[in-house]
Design goal:
Elements lengths: L5 E2 L9 H17 L7 E4 L19 H18 L5 E4 L10 H11 L4 E6 H7 L5 H12 L3 E6 L9 H10 L6 E3 L7 H19 L2
Parallel strand pairs: 1-2, 2-3, 3-4, 4-5, 5-6
Helix pairs in contact: 1-2, 3-5, 5-6, 6-7
């Protein structure tokens, strides 16, 4: 078994200073043991101003103050994990400060850290921008972020509402050859989700590489 990444996900801009300190301390501990598991990637998110649910959007998330606070938190996270040299992979989330592709590109450009990369979750991006065609939403994401993606997320397959062919084709075209991570299913649904995902991956890659 290969460990692709360790989750260090927490609310980096938690309103409670004590909880925020604990979050950074935990991130430091995870980074120190990361390589013992065979990986050098720790996944994180950008956080929310909601004090109860770290995945819930808050009106203040899109303020200039929240953006600067998030930038400072990312700088602290990079500094905290610097001794271990791990890569921090942040995932754009509709309910967080870092909502989508343009925010993610802005973050990378502002911090310019070789240890800050992206978790790509196409379903998140498409659900957050339902008025645009999936091909345009995903195409923009891979155009702007392709070279910085270190993990590709795949929620349980809903083929009727998400174009996996476009998603995988764009990933390959961008040069991505890393792990595909399943998540978001119940324990009872793991076997079926793995089977369905393996089937579509094998079918697509065989078609793309005859």
């Amino acid at each position: 078994m290969t460990v692709a990444a360790i989750s260090g996900t927490c609310n980096l801009i938690d309103r409670d200073p004590a909880r925020r300190l604990l979050n950074f301390a935990g991130l430091g501990v995870l980074s120190e043991v990361c390589r013992e598991t065979g990986t050098s990637v720790v996944t994180i998110c950008s956080g929310t101003r909601d004090g109860e649910d770290m995945w819930r959007a808050h009106p203040e998330n899109q303020s200039a103050e929240s953006w600067q606070e998030m930038i400072h938190a990312m700088e602290c996270a990079l500094e905290t994990t610097e001794p271990s040299g791990v890569t921090l992979a942040v995932e754009p989330e509709p309910g967080n400060v870092l909502r989508g592709t343009l925010d993610a590109r802005r973050l990378l450009d502002e911090l310019c850290s070789p240890r800050l990369k992206i978790v790509m979750d196409g379903a998140n991006l498409v659900s957050a921008d339902p008025e645009r065609p999936q091909e345009k939403v995903l195409g923009e994401a891979f155009d702007l972020l392709g070279g910085d993606i270190v993990l590709l997320h795949a929620k349980p397959l809903a083929r009727a509402c998400f174009d996996w062919g476009i998603y995988l084709e764009l990933a390959l075209r961008s040069g991505y050859r890393g792990p595909v991570i399943l998540h978001g299913m119940t324990e009872d649904g793991v076997v079926a989700a793995f089977r369905d995902t393996r089937e579509i991956l094998q079918t697509y890659f065989l078609r793309s590489n005859p």
